[in-house]
Amino acid sequence: MSKLPGNAGVSVLGDKSLEFYRDPVSFYRERIEKHRSRVFQCRLLNRPTTFICSVQAMRELLCGRLCSLCIIVYVCVLVNLYLHVSGEEACLLRLSLTSLFSGSCLESSSDYITSRQPECVYSVFKRLGTELVLGLFLNVRAEEQPELFQEITQLCTQHWHGLISAPVNVKVPLWSSGFSTALEARDKLMDIIKDKLENDTQGFVGTLRSLPLPDSSCASQHLLLFISALIPKALASLLTSFTLALSGNEQVRKHRQKRAIEDPDYLHRILLEVQRLWPPFIGGRRIADKDSTLGGFHVPKGYGAIYISHAVHRDPEVFQQPDNFLPERWSGRNAGQEHFLCSFGSGPRSCIGSKLNDVFLKEACVYLLKHYDWCLDPPSQDLEYKWLPVSRPTNPPTMSFTRLDQTRSDKNYTS
């Protein structure tokens, strides 16, 4: 068992959180090159932290019997989101989510591409994600209750943006800190959620209210998490990356589009490769409550352990040509290795809604592939990615979509 490469630094002065959040990809790449190791230590959130950038160490952290790493904390944002969910409670939630896989719950929203001018695809897909989330989890549909839908959307945005701001609760006349505004938005959302739980008997709300959860507040807390801006942003991130991945060379694009329509397995491989290269979340973090081992290195008690999904997905020991978009890898060398991806955790510590997310993505992508052709508009755009709070191009790209049932002479572009 070896000592971790790198230096954990001293309290406060040695903290590297700001550097990490400014550019997490450059942060980990510089240290991998410096330490010649995909596992190293640094100080994050003023705690000595083990950074995990290899598939092997990620699997040990999330899928092994490392009961000493006991606190689940997702570092998807600039603050920690603590999810205290017991094994039994998580199983109940997983079972309740199965009710969303049938009936009309996942009918395609066929009119979400409506504009006649090129628009920001990320915004279009985030709107779609919001409609899906609020419809599925709260029985609130934009076309039926537009005012309530708009109110919840705005409150979710305020709640999200406040959470990723400095945790300073200040409120004075004519001004409130972002964190204070987030707390107010949370309280208003909780009032709406509690009203739904008390009065709605249909759909997921009705299912959740009937579960034998530990206390009366659990259902409300879970619904607050499910409807937060986090899920629509994740969907928008992946759908944006999907459309970008198929918007390059016209000949290659048309070949991949044709294959994806004809072969569901090939579409699955495309989505795996999109998730591998552009994971929506940067990773997750846990805390060691006793000495442990990860990737052959000693992790002392009290250390954090953060896996970086962008780095894990580019581990050259597992993924050849790691920076290239190659859907074919999932039917070749990496066939059956989907569990090496960790965008939504992995193994027993995976997101309880990851399968539902897959259904969302496939529904939307199949609809797009069958009904539209698309391209960047204008053709030359800056597609450099930012990775926090969710991955997407720093300058949101705009695209034009053409209905496949229109003639080529029809220049009616929509987004």
Features:
single chain; 415 residues; alpha+beta; Cytochrome p450; 6-stranded mixed β-sheet; 4-stranded antiparallel β-sheet; 43% helix; globular; disordered C terminus; monooxygenase activity; Cyt_P450_B; Cyt_P450_sf; iron
Specify the number of helices.
14
Subunit arrangement of the protein:
single chain
The Rg value, from CA coordinates, equals: 22 Å
Q: Please estimate the helix content.
A: 40-55%
E-strand count: 16
What count of domains describes the coordinates?
1
CATH homologous superfamily heading? Cytochrome P450
Arrangement of strands in the largest sheet? 1-2-11-8-3-4
CATH class label: Mainly Alpha
Q: Specify the overall morphology.
A: globular
Instruction: Give the N-to-C terminal Cα separation.
Output: 55 Å
Protein name: Putative cytochrome P450 120
Keywords: Heme, Iron, Metal-binding, Monooxygenase, Oxidoreductase
Organism: Seriola lalandi dorsalis
GO molecular function: heme binding; iron ion binding; monooxygenase activity; oxidoreductase activity, acting on paired donors, with incorporation or reduction of molecular oxygen
